[in-house]
Design a protein that fits this description.
The protein is α/β, with parallel strands linked by helices and about 220 residues long. About 25% of the residues lie in helices and about 30% in strands.
Length: about 220
């Protein structure tokens, strides 16, 4: 069993009967979704809310009943991945392109568990480029404004064209190096007109389950 599978399947044990569960996006939470699907087939009664079109397809294909966010008053538990996380459970997310929906669902969740392999657990954020979701209108101006914060920028592409999120926006991957003040950077980026949101998740996660080669590490606030 690889580290991602170990962490992803362990997180499914926190899902209980009757829950509304936010289903994250990415290669580690993929294993969570498959394990939840197995539990549903054995009688677990839950409803899921998908953070992306890809997750929605995966959940439906495996028999997990889904609701839209508008159909619920709150979400009991969200399980999602991270591209980087620190000991205080500050995260970089968005490598899979779903950061905005992931953040909306995390905000409306009572609890959030992060699943990751050991390579994602770092002392300081910043090795992984920070994804910033921007609107297409005036995107070059927005990118130039982002550069003023001292980062190198690359607009994300897929198959030779600009990557387009489920929300119809673009993503700019911003390489800052070590991020010393995530909260300040988060707020500064989001003040730029044209920026929809960025991949810094601060104060959302209550627990992280990190897969190791032969064990699991738990990080809690």
């Amino acid at each position: 069993m690889n580290e991602k599978q170990r962490a992803g399947e362990e997180a499914a044990n926190y899902v209980q009967n009757g829950m509304i569960v936010g289903l994250g996006t990415g290669s580690t939470v993929y294993w969570t979704i498959l394990e939840i699907a197995r539990m549903v087939k054995e009688g677990l009664d839950i409803k899921g809310i998908a953070t992306s079109t890809n997750t929605e397809i995966l959940a439906r294909e495996n028999g997990i009943p889904l609701l839209s966010l508008e159909e619920v008053s709150s979400i009991d538990l969200t399980i999602d991945g991270a591209d980087e996380l620190t000991e205080d459970l500050t995260l970089i997310k968005g490598g899979g392109g779903a950061l905005l929906r992931e953040k909306i669902i995390a905000y409306h969740s009572t609890h959030m568990i992060v699943v990751a392999d050991s390579n994602k657990f770092v002392k300081k954020l910043g090795t992984f480029p920070l994804p910033v979701e921007i609107v297409p209108f005036g995107y070059l101006k927005t990118i130039n404004a982002l550069k003023k914060f001292g980062c190198q920028t690359a607009i994300r592409k897929k198959d030779g064209s600009f990557y387009v999120t489920d929300n119809g926006n673009y993503i700019v991957d911003c390489q800052f190096g070590e991020i010393d003040y995530p909260s300040t950077l988060h707020d500064n980026l989001n003040q730029v007109p044209g920026v929809v949101d960025n991949g810094l998740f601060i104060g959302y996660a209550a627990k992280a389950i990190i897969g190791q080669e032969s064990t699991i590490t738990y990080v809690e606030k």
